[in-house]
Structure formats: C-alpha cells, structure tokens
Fold Cysteine--tRNA ligase.
Amino acid sequence: MTLNLYDTYSRSLRELQPIKPGHISLYACGPTVYDYAHIGNLRTYIFVDLLRRALEYSGLQVNHVMNITDVGHLTSDQDSGEDKMEKGSQRTGKTAWEIAEQYTRAFKQDLASLNIQEPVTWCSATDHIADQIEFIADLERKGFTYRTADGIYFDTSRQPDYGHLARLDRAGLQSGKRVDIGDKKQITDFALWKFSGVVGQRQMEWDSPWGVGFPGWHIECSAMSARHLGEYFDIHCGGEDHVPVHHSNEIAQTEARYGTRLANFWLHGAFLKSSEAKMSKSSGAFVRVQTLIDRGVDPLAFRYLCLTTHYRSQLSFSDDALDSAASGFERMRALVARLGEPGVPDDGYLDRFEAELRHDLNFPRALALAWEMLKSDLPDASKKATISRFDEAFGLRLALWTPAVVGVPPALAELMARRELARAERRWSDADQLRIQARSIGYELDDTAAGQQARRM
Ligand SMILES: Nc1ncnc2c1ncn2[C@@H]1O[C@H](COP(=O)(O)OP(=O)(O)OP(=O)(O)O)[C@@H](O)[C@H]1O
Ligand SMILES: [Zn+2]
C-alpha cells in the first residue's frame, strides 16, 4: 500500500516513494525540556506516532529519530531573550541539567501513557555540541555566516530560495520590520552560535572556535538529523508553528552545507487550541497528561479525541469534547472486550481501512469505519480480528483491554463485562440490574476510579 501524504514544501498531496525501498527515515523535532509537555505538544507527537504506525502498517520499516532540545531555545524567535532552559532553572531552583533530566523523564512517561512508540533513536542537543560546531564551521568556510557582537549568524541573503517552505515574503518582512534586529543584517538571519557574554554566568556553555557560548536552536536539528539519518532523508515533521522559522532555518543550513533539501517530505500537524486554557508552556497555565488523570480520564481517551480530527485541522479542545471522546472510547473498548477470541479479519473492511490511511492519514474516517464494522453483522470472531488490525494503526490498546475480572468466577466475569458495556453506554438501569444479579451469586460490585471491583458478600 502506497501512502499519499500532504507535503508542506510542495503544498501538494504526493505519493510517498521511499528513498531506500522498504525503509523510511523519519525525523521529528522533539520537545524543549524546560517544563512538562502540554496536551497541545502531545497532539503533535500523537500525529507523528499515527504517521509512523500507518507507515509500519503499510509494511515499511521506520527509522524514527527524535531530538531533545536541552539548550539554546531562546524565548523569542528573534534570537533574543533568555534561553528557555536557563529560565526553567530559575523558575524551579534546580540546575538546567537537572530540569533537562526531570522533564525528559516526564515526557517519556507521557508518551507511554498515550501509547506513543518511542523513537528508534533519541538524541539530545547537549550530546551533539561537537557536531553542531563542525556544522557551523563548515557553513563559515562556505561563506554563509557573519559575526556580530553577540554571536555567529546565518546570512539568509546568500540563499535566493530562503523561506520557500513557508512561502515567506522576504522583501515585505524586511521593509515592514517592527522589531529591533540588533546587529543582524536581515530580519530573517538567525543565530548559529551565541556568545555567553560574561563567561561563567550561564550553566550551559562550551568552548568553540568563535568563543565560549552555546548553539542556536535550529542548528541542532540539521546536525543531528545528518548524524543519525544522513544529509537527505524521507520525512521531517513537527507542529505547524515550525514552518516559518525553525524548519525554514533547518532547510537553509542543510542546503548551504550539503546542497540537499534535507527531507523529501515535510509534514506538519495543526495546533490544538483551547478556549478554556491557554495552551502554551511559556504562559505557565496548561493542561497536561497528569491533569487528565486527575480528572479521572484515561489518557488514551485523549488519543481517541486526536483520532477524531484530521491532523491538518485545528483541534478545539474543551471539557465537553474530552468527555464525549472518553465515552466513545469506553464504549468502543467495552464492545471489543465482549467479542471473544479473534478469527479471520474481514478483507472488505481491511481494504476500506487502508484506503482511508492511504489518503493523507484519514484517521477520522478510519475511526468511523471501525464503528461501522463493530455495529455490522459480521461474526464476533471476525470483528475481533479486524479491529485488532485497525488498532495496530490507532494505538488505542483495544484488544488488550479487559474489565478488571482477574481471579473471579466465569459467571461473574461475564456479568462484569456486560455491566462495563452498559456503563460505557450510559444504560444506567441495565447496570443496576446487573449489579443485583451479581449480588444473587454472592458478590457486591463497587465502582472505583480503577473500574469495577468485586467483593465477596
Ligand atoms: N498548541 C499546540 N498544538 C499542537 N502542537 C503544538 C502546540 N504548541 C506546540 N506544539 C508543538 O509541540 C512540539 C514541542 O514544542 P516545544 O517543546 O518546543 O514547545 P514550546 O514551543 O517550547 O512550547 P510553548 O510554545 O507552548 O511555550 C513542537 O512540534 C511544536 O510544534
Ligand atoms: Zn527541529
């Protein structure tokens, strides 16, 4: 099965032809670990995971690399302001190194809660300082850099097609500039290396041919993707906010050094927006995985919510949207838990499912198809096998889930499974009836945060 994916670079749907047959090299920009990830950030990583699962579903082997930004991401896109890591350190009273470790661990925990597969290779900016220095030195030799009082900058005027990814209007930007660009020659020029100023005041700084300092944010991705995937690879992805600055700058650096376009495909996930809370780490107030758990919501219900909106459409997050996703998700897994042992998947439904994934990862339609299949008159064994195949791409752990019935007699297990479904479908009087039936065989059923618990009466 060949996927058709929307490539931001060409602004078109293109057929994905792997550079190396059977394999896909995939780079996703990772988090800046100065705070917990919010569910907006995580929507983007769910999108990357769905992309990877669709690629694997189609039989491709995916070499997935993700970076951890633990230095050099400044609070302003104009290469001014504080380094987010140093700022996080001031906020928490911990060292920048400690918070990098703490929030990287928290991020990996979030990925696990959302059943997002970890990349094949993790790489962090601070582990690749030498690669970044070498990259900048090569750009300098090729004449793409200049020095200002505060750092080494990339000269975007050297590239006629700089900003093509974002269709930037360079002339308009330059003449309409309202921000102070300091010593930079063009508004679009960006820092490759920043000087520390007073040495010893920053926690994270390194020696370099240009003086003590730290790398700019963009250079890490060009250097690490080249190190782990090569100069030109299949797919680069991230959130849509990366198009005008971060990804445009990654492309500029790699084109300047290697003469290649960096990636064959550029895929971008649209934002999650919330009317109730500003979804931004920098603003301080945001919803994260732990917030969902505290509200008694299974994090996978958030994954289900993400599946209901196409990755290129904005997702409007609200409590109501989350509640209805949670009830859809609970109904689906309770239904699946009742299907029994799997038989043979249904080819007709599998074909239709693949067609939805093939068309730019149409997961909302694929999810609707799953509902249609579950409500159809296919035999249960066939439904179970078919939904298990679908779930390789959904990643909802549907087939693994069972109500908490371990160690209880089969008759009670059956009652509990039926009651679980009744509760998920909000058939409260049926649920009450089933509780009475459980009592008649000597068990009291308690509804707890972890699901139903059976107690001998
Ligand atoms: N509201 C959002 N919805 C979807 N993706 C988002 C959202 N905000 C950020 N992202 C994406 O999350 C990923 C990680 O971003 P990063 O850790 O750099 O966050 P950040 O930009 O520092 O956070 P913030 O801007 O919220 O302070 C990036 O791919 C980015 O595009
Ligand atoms: Zn990046």
Observations:
- The domain at 4-269 is CATH 3.40.50.620 (Rossmann fold).
- The chain has a mean pLDDT of 92.
- The longest helix spans residues 39-57.
- Residues 29, 221, 246, 250 surround zinc ion (ligand 2) (CB under 6 Å).
